[in-house]
């Protein structure tokens, strides 16, 4: 079945460090891929998405590229800030029109000043 | 900015009791969802709801669970006869169309069964 595997957390970095959170997926069809973020006390928010191979999603300085050959959608940011501290979830939608998202387990990111 | 709101933020209940988790989706949205996350595990889909009926449910969503939209604004998840393993964070979500558009999630209700 469809599944998402994320890098184990927690991840702790210093401000202005480079961030990578790995995400790989297994899917039988042609999924869309997403990164959601959950700030403390808030709901899951869509951070970025990509709907087909080689698409790059970007938002708030974060980027992720849909790599079909490696079945990956790694999240990157060149210079993190304290305000980026949150839990990050990689997810896939198995096909267009699907009802449900398939999530990874989430990665807790803490940025120290 | 419109948002999905969930109440309560934390609920503690005794094993065997019934609980109702409440959600107010974004007002013009048509699709509604419940997900849960057991501590340390993945966020799991429970159920989707459209046009006043369940459109899809997972194997987790057995007869112990039910959903309804009682008054056109609230969307509730009822868990009958709670078990210890029902302890989890429950997320409600809504979307204007099917899930390939942006789904908006609530902040979650942490359910603790003791």
**Strand fraction band of chain A?**
over 45%
Number of strands of chain A: 12
The major sheet of chain A is characterized as:
6 strands, mixed
Report the principal-axis shape of chain B: globular
Helical coverage of chain B, percent range: under 10%
| Rg result of chain A | 13 Å
Structural class of chain B: mainly beta
The unreliable regions of chain A are: none
Q: Would you identify the regions of chain B where 5 or more consecutive residues have pLDDT less than 50?
A: none
- Number of helical elements of chain A: 0
Q: Whole-number radius of gyration of chain B?
A: 13 Å
| Mean of all residue-level pLDDT scores of chain B | 92
Assign an overall shape of chain A.
Answer: globular
Number of helices of chain B: 0
Q: What attributes characterize this protein structure?
A:
heterodimer, A: 113 residues, 6-stranded mixed sheet, 4-stranded antiparallel sheet, 0% helix, 50% strand, globular
Any overview of this molecule?
The complex is a heterodimer of chains A (113) and B (114). Chain A is mainly β and 113 residues long. Chain A is built from no helices and twelve strands. Chain A has strands at residues 3-6, 11-14, 19-21, 23-26, 32-38, 44-50, 56-59, 62-65, 75-77, 86-93, 102-103, 107-112. In chain A, strands 2, 5, 6, 10, 11 and 12 form a six-stranded mixed β-sheet that branches. In chain A, strands 3-9-8-7 form a four-stranded antiparallel β-sheet, with no helix packed on it. In chain A, strand 5 and strand 6 form a beta hairpin. Chain A is globular, with a radius of gyration of 13 Å. The mean pLDDT of chain A is 93. In chain B, a hairpin with an 8-residue loop joins strand 9 and strand 10. Chain B has strands at 5-7, 10-13, 19-24, 31-37, 43-50, 53-57, 65-68, 75-79, 88-95, 104-105, 109-113. Chain B is mostly beta strands and 114 residues long. In chain B, the strands form two sheets. In chain B, strands 2, 4, 5, 6, 9, 10 and 11 form a seven-stranded mixed β-sheet that branches. A four-stranded antiparallel β-sheet of chain B has the order 1-3-8-7, with no helix packed on it. Classes of the chains: A mainly beta (113), B mainly beta (114).
């Amino acid at each position: 079945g469809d599944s998402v595997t994320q890098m184990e957390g927690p991840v702790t970095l210093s401000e202005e460090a480079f961030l990578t959170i790995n995400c790989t997926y297994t899917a039988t069809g042609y999924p869309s891929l997403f990164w959601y973020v959950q700030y403390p006390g808030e709901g899951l928010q869509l951070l970025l998405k990509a709907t087909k191979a080689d698409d790059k999603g970007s938002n708030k300085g974060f980027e992720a590229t849909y790599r079909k050959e490696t079945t990956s959608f790694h999240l990157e940011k060149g210079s993190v800030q304290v305000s980026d501290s949150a839990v990050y979830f990689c997810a896939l939608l198995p096909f267009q029109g699907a009802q449900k998202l398939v999530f990874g387990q989430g990665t807790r990111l803490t940025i120290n000043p | 900015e419109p948002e999905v709101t969930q109440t309560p933020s934390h609920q503690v209940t005794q094993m065997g009791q019934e609980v109702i988790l409440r959600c107010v989706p974004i007002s013009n949205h048509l699709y509604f969802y419940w997900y849960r996350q057991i501590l340390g595990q993945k966020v799991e889909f429970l159920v989707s709801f459209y046009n006043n009926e369940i459109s899809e449910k997972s194997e987790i969503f057995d007869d112990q669970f039910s959903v309804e939209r009682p008054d056109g604004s609230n969307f509730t998840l009822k868990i009958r006869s709670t078990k210890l393993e029902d302890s989890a964070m429950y997320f409600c979500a809504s979307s204007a169309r099917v899930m390939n558009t942006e789904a908006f999630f609530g902040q979650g209700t942490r359910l603790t069964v003791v």
